[in-house]
Amino acid sequence: MFSKNEIKDKIIGGISGVNRLWGIRGAAGTGKSLLLYDIAKTVSSEFRVCVIHSGIICEGHKILIVAYIMFQLLRLKRLAINLLVNMMLFV
To answer: Which pLDDT tens digit goes with each residue over 25-50?
Structure first.
C-alpha cells in the first residue's frame, strides 16, 4: 500500500512524461478528491489543469474548489451534454 504522498509524487513525476492522463479510485471517504485537488494545485504553476469530476459534487468539494481556484473543474455529466450538443451542431 502506498502513502498519499508517494502516490502524489509518482503522478507528479510522471506528468511531463507520456502518461498525462491519470485516474484515482478508491472507496468513499478515502481522500481521493483531496489528493486530486492537491496534485492539481501543485502542478497548476507549470501546467494548465482541468479536473473532470465524475461523481456528485458535495459541499466538501465546493470548499476545496474555492480554496484551490487555480484549476478548472468540470462535471463529467455537464461535459458529456456539451459534447453531444456540439456534435449535433456539426452534423
So the answer is: 888 888 888 888 888 888 888 877 77
Nearest to 37 by CA among 11, 5, 68, 63: 68
Q: What is the C-alpha end-to-end distance of the chain, expressed in Å?
A: 48
Q: Please state, in angstroms and rounded to a whole number, the distance separating the CA atoms of residues 90 and 69.
A: 33
Q: What is the DSSP letter of 26?
A: -
Could you tell me where the DSSP H helices lie in 16-75? 32-43, 59-67
- How many other CB atoms are there within 10 angstroms of residue 7's CB atom? 15
To the nearest 10°, report the CA torsion of 11, 12, 16, 22: 30
* pTM summary value: 0.64
- Going by C-alpha positions, the residue among 47, 36, 31, 25 that lies closest to residue 73 is 36
Which of 42-51, 67-76, 79-88 shows the highest mean pLDDT? 42-51
